[in-house]
Structures
1.
Amino acid sequence: MKKLIECVPNFSEGKDMAVIEKITREIESVDGVKLLDADPGEATNRTVVTFVGTPDEVVEAAFRAVRKASELIDMRRHRGAHPRMGATDVCPLVPVANISMEEVVEYAHRLAERIGKELGIPVYCYENAALKPERQNLANCRSGEYEGMADKLASQEWKPDFGPDRFNERAGVTAVGARDFLVAYNINLNTTSTRRANAVAFDVREKGRVKRQGHPLTGKIVKDEKGDPVYIPGSLKGVKAIGWYIEEYGIAQISMNLTNISVTSVHAAFDEVCEKAAQRGLRVTGSELVGLVPLKAMLDAGRYFLRKQKRSLGVSEGELIKIAVRSMGLDELKPFNPKEKIIEYMIAEDDGRRLVDMSVTGFADETASESPAPGGGSVSAYVGALGVSLGTMVANLSSHKRGWDERWNEFSKWAEKGQAIKQELLYLVDEDTRAFNRILEAFGMPKKSAGEQKERKRAIEEATRYAIEIPFRVMQQAYESMEVMEAMVEKGSPSSITDAAVGALCARTAVAGAFMNVRINSEGLDDKDFYKKLYNQAREIDKAAAIKEAEITGKVEKVLGKGNTT
């Protein structure tokens, strides 16, 4: 699965659209990233840009944008309502999918170093990327703003983390950070009262509400030794919230910023607001996501609500999203379109050429055509996906079989395992064809000069290795899936054991077919040690799969034999 990070640079220009377009054009010039939004503000004279993509490409796009901003924006003439210290004021990186915060911090430091070294712009690192505790808070880094940066940089305490410690008058100073994904989330109430909505907001937000003596609304505000109000914390960490009335919809809402969805998830916020609202005689009627949300947040929500129902979690990605949407009423005010609201779907390439997106007939017709791909490798992966789908089906049927209610979690775990393997095998259906195409591309490289010949040979070797690794991964996944089918034959619904057995037969076919591809794709590979090691592993998997198939079908035959009256 692709690693994805988001970048949200803020540029100190919000009036001249020509400048903004030139900066965003730099971002769009990098393959592997997608520009999601550019939001200019005239009063603040500032534009917030959002783009997402694979890590190396996001760092490259961010660097190009910072470079272009330093060429086009002269901070000596900048005026605006928002605090600022540089042409690119801040540039945070945000983990979206399949990447840890620690990894994102490394990318932030790499970007900061490059900005400082190549562009001569002083850089402070903030939030999770901070190299000094006092620099975690962006406000500390930006205090003094542009006008005070020359003196600030001259002090030993505030020398930059990267770049020169002399002030860049034109570009100013940039802050590069790594922070958690922020989700803007509104929850709808069956009231028009802003005051009542605010009461619920104060119940849940981390900051909470002001502490008072006596009456909670009119009593005297309690203050600390510094004279500041004392607050009673709310129930949700990493949540900012207020209540407001939306005239367009005729309802009051709890408007929240979830600043760290790994601490407080969307579904946890929803359920907590439901509980607090009920305590005040209110009812939640639905909710809305403002902007984009990571896929994981929706899948986690779907699993959460299925778990509350004691239903199997091992359903498809699309079904999990439907459960999340229905459970949280995300379509109450307007239709919820996953392709427009989920980041991974928003940036997915939809060129209509993925094999797994074809109809069953389309896939068969494409395979039967005179094109050499898809071939045996893709078909092996697809057969394996069909096999484990059967095993997963038996697990899901067993999870809500009448009289087996207490066993729902047992079968849910098997179904989840089957779904994960199915997803990987479906990915490998297209990846096998891509691996084949990589070989063709490598052989098509120029070979006139000695340098070109060397590069062509290297590319062919790498492509060949990959074309061997893909069917080997098919073998591994298909063999692992047989564990699901075996469990369903032994423990699943008795009326579905033949379905599980057919799944095992498909898995065995996938292993054997992929093994053939491992062997034939090795032709021309120079790295014989690599192939020998992989071949020995593949042969063992093939043998083990044959044994496992015989065991599973043997158990089913015994059951079928008992019912044979001839």
Note: Residues 488 and 500 are 6 Å apart (CA to CA).
2.
Amino acid sequence: MAILGQIQRRSSVLIIIIALALFAFIIQGLIKNSSSLGNGNINTIAEVDGHKIGRNDFQKKVALLQKQNPGISNMQAMQSVWNQVINEAVLNNQYDKLGIQVGSDRIRELIVNNPSIKGAFTNQQGVFDENALSDYIDNIYKSKKTNPELYAQWKNFENSLLESEKQKIYTDMLKAAVNPTLKEGEWLYHFENDAVDFKYAAVPYRTIPDSLVKVTKDDILSYLKKHKDQYQTEETRSLEYVFIPLQPSVEDKQKVEGELKDLINDKEIFDAKAKDQKRLEKGFKNTTDDEAFANKYSDVKQQARFFFKSQLPKEYADTLINLNKGDIFGPYSLNNQVYLTKALETKMIPDSAKAAHILIAYKGALRANPSVTIDKTVAKKKADSILKLVRKNPSKFADYARNLSDGPSKTRGGDLGWFTYGQMVPEFNDFVFTGKKDQIGIVETPFGYHIIKINDITKPKKAVKLISIVRNVEPSTDTENAIFAKAAQFASEALDTDNFEKLAKEKGYQAKPVMRIGRYEDNLPGIGKNREIVRWLYNKDRNIGDVTKFDTDKGHIIVYVTGMQEKGLMPVEEASPLVKPIILKEKKAKMIKEKFKGNTLEEIAKNASAKLGVANGVTLKNPIIPGFGREPKVVAKAFVLKPQEISQPIDGNRAVYVIETLKLDKAPDIKNYIPYVEQLKKQRQAGIAQDVVKALKEKADIEDNRAIIYQ
């Protein structure tokens, strides 16, 4: 009572404290977002050379893309739309500068000639009905308010046609500007046909072991700075993680096994309505409705069916195939499930058959084509008539199927190929697998009436009809709590380590790396979709060595930050695999060149322990030195050397060379170089649309505000 009195007396003070705390929280949030609120970027997703792309329109496009592609994630849709709108923005700037426009008449023409549109508005006579299309478009515009989603989809379709046509005009203009000269055609002719013979002395880089050449971090950094345009990287984060799965314990599994064992035999249960308050409940062994009993206690819907030995789990196949009617096997485990299986019947049946059919569908039948208008009675009469025809002329079955069947197999003459027992719907399956080769008959299924011809059937094999009670083994609350405690303990210890991988190994876990995670990714290798982790990685307060734990429905992920790369020059560690081989080659070349001494090629080869050789008839188009592969620098030098002149050492792709030109065979001039001009033109026009967009994006001033919206 004394405590209650103190709380009542101090309640006003508590209210003031709580209010101040809430006020501070709100102010902190406003300060945090002040930059985005102040500069107006919160409503602009991007700005491309002064052209603003609105947030609302962008998000509508993302939502529409996700609706059209249900399997795509929010981040994948966002990235796809981002690429689309940036491409459109840089191109539209060019369209505006060049005055490229597409009139409404041209858009109408594109709509009318669109293959999808033509197919959708073709009448029963197979003729395109433009009036029907016009009515459809008018209705879309009239229903702008009542059906805004359909209107938005249509406008998006029209805009895509508009953008595509503008880009075509722009690309055609670029292609028209590609006009190689006759001189360039002449150059290409000689590039392909002039040939040179030369001698060489070559020392391959591989003759010097990598262990004898030291490449330091300073060497790599110096190289990166000299070639910084080639080694730029985007903003990324890297991590190591340990996954501790939520798995059931041995005790959890034993509990389920005990519950299944308790279902085998009959047992007395309490029944308040009975005279002696007891009632005998039949178990799995004596139940009269095996399938209903199994489904009552199973976590997975069950259906009794025949199994061949090859279809049974390998570790239990011998036991299950030899069960007799009424035998029960189990409980036994498969993955994280426990089975209790009862044999209902055994018999000899074929395991595979080959058949053909003619399907006569009727209105309302499963998957019936909308063009099918006959009712069930008419369909049955039609099927009976066809059955009489094919029984009289079995050899013409395929022809009848092609002309009369409503099924997709009609193009194959009704042939269904080989299929296994149980693969077809029950009525179809029973007819085929209880029949004989060449037997023809009719059955009804949910798809309609089938005239079936059995083309082949395998010899009968032993099969057993089984029904199972299948129980999932889930972690109990105690197990989940124990796993949670282990994960929390490991995460706590990881806070104080500078070697996450070593700590994980000591604790019996495996640390796995995930490198170069982009800001807008949500699907992480080994982890799967987890946007929460990416958001955490890109928090402004994040540092290398930070650790946290993420709880999922499948387990706990302990994440350790190993790298934080901002946009700019690639870090030494990341660039090392790319740059180190280049520096190694440069240093080896320097060591090799020091050995190249002498006045003749033979002297140089002897002093440098080089390989002597001759290359004959080598062209600039195919600059291949036998035994060494493509060496364009070396071959180009051979073309400009005077005969019998010895070159300075040349750093090739595979070796360092010294060469001596023997003979230059210049191809005779020809009267007409136009074919070579056309060849150059095609080469330069190929991929011009993609290349120009890439170049425009690299040149454009793009302000990316996605980080404000997509946290």
Note: The longest helix spans residues 148-176.
